[in-house]
Structures are given as structure tokens and as C-alpha cells.
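Format notes (please read before filing issues)

Several people have asked whether sequences and C-alpha cells are stored in separate files. They are not. Every record keeps both together, in the order shown below: the sequence lines, then the C-alpha cell lines. Line labels are part of the format and must not be stripped during preprocessing.
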Amino acid sequence: MPNGEYLRYVALGDSQTEGLGDGDDTTGLRGFADRFAEHLATANPGLQYANLAVRGRLAGQVRAEQLGPALALRPDLATVVAGVNDILRPRFDAAEVAGHLEEMFAALTAAGARVATVTFPDLSVLVPLARPVAPRIADLNDRIRAAAARHGVAVAETARPAAVTDPRMWTTDRLHASAVGHARIAAALAHAVGLPGSDDTWTHPLPPLPPAALGSAAAAAAELRWVAAFLGPWLGRRLRGRSSGDGRTAKRPDLLPLSPAPSDTP
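Then the structure lines:
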């Protein structure tokens, strides 16, 4: 749209785009896509917004299930964020995952939409057991940047600022952004597409905390609790061929005006 006038925003993706970590299934999920829509609506009061994301989806599933409905909504702005679920699978092919993302970039831009995406932070900083996936993340990020450049897609470089590894940016599962993290991702996207009033403050560190008094034994115990509470159930679903998104559908499949934003924005 000329002069950054966006009236139809559609979000495609998995659990981060759905909003896990920002609210809950009882009170309702918010998430970076909702928050980005609020940024957009400030500059474009007539904005309508749809969110097609479903938790647990792989990049190929996002393309197969969400691209067609997204194109049917004729967005003038779309976000495409997927690939972390692929990174965590035993059989990961960065070229294949990036290919699914690029197909979505190409189709949406060819239909006249402005497209934005993100890069992914190094999970191993937050989850020491995830160190083996660090090269996968770096490889996929490079491929996302290259594909985005080929199609004029805006990239919010949420992989790079040191602030993204602050534990306060993440929920206790260490895989989903917290409300603070979702707010930062939304601000990063607003900056990437050049919304009025956006800037790089999303990259700034959070206020300092007192030094942690966590000894090695306590740290090891915390890791074991994380394995029992989050990694174990995740592995169990994989072994049973289940997904957290089984039986779920998009939370906002149609373009609708935004409701008033909650007042507790981090």
C-alpha cells in the first residue's frame, strides 16, 4: 500500500504467532501478531486483522494449510513466522524449511501484499540442552534472510540483540516468548516495516536485575525440573505422533476490526 497504509493484515504461523506465552487459553491469547496489529491500527484506524496460526505446525503445514486462506483474504500486509518446530525435529532440512517459507513469501508478494518475517534467536543460550540445534538455527536464519531479499520481504532481526536472551523475554518453557517478549517482537516488526513512531528501542536491554544467587546444584535442579515439566511431555507427544495443535483451528480466521487493546502492555 502507498505510504504504509495497511488495511488488511493476515498473520501466518505456529504457536508464537498464535500467541502462546502471552495470556492463556482461558483468558485468551494475545501474542506478537495481535500486538503488531495494534501498532498498525494506530496508524491505520480502519485496519482489519486475521490470524491463521495454529500451534505445533511445521513450516510445510503452515504453507499447505494457511497460504490459500491467506491469499483469499487479499491482505495488503502479511507476516510469515514458522520453522522453530522443524528445527526441533530429528530430521531437519534447512533448505526444505526455507523453501516452504520462500513459497509463501513469493505467493503473498506476487498477490500484492507487503510481507514481513523474523529471524530466530539461539535457543541454546536459554536451553543448554539445545546446543546441538544452534547450527540449525544459524543456517535457517541465513536462508530466511536470502529468501526475504529475493522477494522484498521485511526482516525483523530478532535473532541479533543481546536482549533476546534475557530470561524475562521467555516463559518458563523457554521456547515461547513471554508477554514482554511478544511486545518486543511486535515492536521489531513495526520497525522493520517502517511504521510511524517505530524505532530500535526494542533492541535495548531490559532493566538490570540483582545478581542471581543460584549455585551449580540449584541450577542443575532447575534444569531437571524443566526437563520433567516441558521437555518430557514434548518428547512424549513426538513419540506418539501427536502435536499440541491437534484438533485446533485458527483463532481468528476472518478479517475483523480490532477490539480495544488491553491496558497492561509491557
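For reference, the curators noted about this record: The longest strand covers residues 8-13. The beta strands are 8-13, 23-24, 28-29, 48-51, 77-81, 114-118, 154-156, 252-257.
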